[in-house]
Design goal:
Elements lengths: L3 E5 L3 H13 L4 E6 L10 E5 H10 L1 H9 L2 E10 L2 E14 H14 L3 E4 L13 E4 L6 H5 L1 H4 L2 E4 L3 E7 L6 E8 L2 E9 L5 E7 L1 H6 L7 H11 L1 H4 L4 E2 L14 E4 L4 E2 L2 E3 L14 H18 L3 H31 L9 H9 L11 H11 L3 H25 L2
Parallel strand pairs: 1-2, 1-7, 2-6, 4-10, 7-16
Antiparallel strand pairs: 3-5, 4-5, 8-14, 9-12, 9-13, 10-11, 11-12, 15-16
Helix pairs in contact: 1-4, 1-10, 2-3, 3-4, 10-11, 13-14
Length: 405
């Protein structure tokens, strides 16, 4: 259907869409435009789960094999609170360096005769001429911003501060470490993405951030303080700021982006340009790649471009409902950490694993823990929990929407 396709943004979503469309029809003329030089990506490792890997194998076995080959895995979660540690088995997780993932996808795209143009800035003032233009240019999408009134973007800032770091400590499990300071709690999430490196995301409440002086510290001093605070979990290893081609390791507040619609004429939003979900559920890259699969399927299954884009948006909005709810409640769990942090270790870690639940904020934590434990043994309680959770989520979400009108 689409003879000429322009993907704006050379991240995983833009590159993978070019691969899938070329596999569907090699005669498609596809160009990926990336504003940065090749190899200058930000970030450390990305995480994903077996379900995504299975779907990658279904859609393009060659790139899936390369992704799997260059990933590391874990099967446990570890929580450290003060001097207490709890380890629990979990689903198999995967980590891969963002730089390596982009290398794999770029090489695969080139092998299929996709044209990659780096250091090419595309804005709403100079859109590429194509039958289909895909805005895969992230949360700050220039193409979406040029038509902001049409897309109806809404951005909600979270409360906590966070910074994305790397470390030479190679974690053997997905690791949560919570440290108490004179100014409140600060914590990190750590997971490996190569045999030599791990990602380490540090988060805290704004009053802790300012109380520790992290709001005023330069990168070196701030990193040194974090290394001291997390010395036990890091085992003396260093924390590393942004890659050498980037400046600084900025603290951020997470912004949840939604849009009223995802397409306009021949322009369609993909990945973070369309929606974002809180990093604490580790699903950003997965959701972007699943968007790509859905868009490629819709384009292949419909001869009309408007119908294909509408079907893509309808499908993905429906599929994202539960994961977006999980992300909201996960972020809220951390924003209300004092509610859970002093529970016995096994209870605190169990509720950490249940942080996606729409019921948890409204039930006393110890009562929820007992009910959840009982539900694991009684089928009737499991059914009640599965039935009641979504109803609470829909009611709360509807009230939140009404309050913003």
């Amino acid at each position: 259907m689409c003879v000429k396709v322009a993907c704006v943004g050379g991240g995983p979503a833009g590159l993978y869409l070019s691969i899938l469309l070329k596999r569907q029809d090699p005669s498609h003329e596809i160009t990926v435009h990336e504003r940065n030089p090749e190899g200058s990506t930000y970030g450390w490792g990305v995480t994903y789960w077996r379900g995504l890997l299975d779907r990658l194998h279904e859609h393009d076995p060659e790139s899936a094999r390369a992704v799997e080959e260059h990933s590391v895995t874990w099967n446990e979660g570890v929580a450290l609170v003060r001097d207490r540690a709890t380890r629990r088995p979990g689903d198999q997780g995967f980590g891969i360096g963002r730089h390596r993932l982009l290398e794999i996808l770029a090489d695969r795209a080139r092998s299929l005769d996709v044209r990659l143009e780096f250091e090419r800035e595309i804005t709403g003032e100079n859109p590429p001429e194509a039958d289909l233009v895909v805005a895969a240019d992230g949360v700050h999408s220039a193409l979406r911003g040029h038509h902001a009134d049409h897309f109806g973007e809404e951005i909600r800032a979270g409360r906590n501060q966070y910074v994305w770091l790397g470390t030479t400590k190679v974690f053997d499990a997905f690791t949560f470490a919570f440290v108490e300071t004179d100014h409140g709690w600060i914590w990190c999430y750590g997971y490996p993405f190569s045999p030599e490196r791990s990602t380490c995301v540090v988060e805290c409440a704004p009053e802790t951030w300012t109380g520790l002086g992290l709001d005023q510290a330069n990168e070196a001093d701030g990193t040194a303080l974090l290394e001291k605070l997390f010395a036990e979990v890091l085992d003396g290893h260093a924390l590393i700021g942004r890659t050498s081609s980037q400046v600084g390791a900025p603290w951020l507040t997470f912004r949840t982006l939604t849009n009223r619609t995802w397409h306009r004429d021949n322009l369609v939003l993909l990945g973070d340009a369309a929606h974002t979900t809180h990093y604490s559920i580790g699903a950003g890259t997965t959701l972007a790649l699943e968007d790509t699969m859905a868009l490629a399927d819709a384009l292949h299954g419909h001869t009309s471009l408007p119908e294909a884009l509408a079907r893509y948006e309808q499908r993905r909005r429906r599929e994202l409902l539960s994961i977006q709810s999980a992300a909201r409640y996960s972020a809220r769990w951390y924003e209300n950490l004092p509610r859970y942090i002093d529970l016995p270790p096994e209870q605190m870690f169990a509720l950490l694993g249940q942080r996606h639940s729409p019921l948890l904020p409204y039930v006393p934590p110890q009562l929820y823990y007992r009910v959840d434990k009982a539900a694991g043994q009684l089928e009737a309680l499991r059914r009640l929990k599965r039935w009641l959770g979504p109803k609470v989520a829909r009611t709360v979400h509807a009230r939140a929407l009404a309050s913003r009108k």
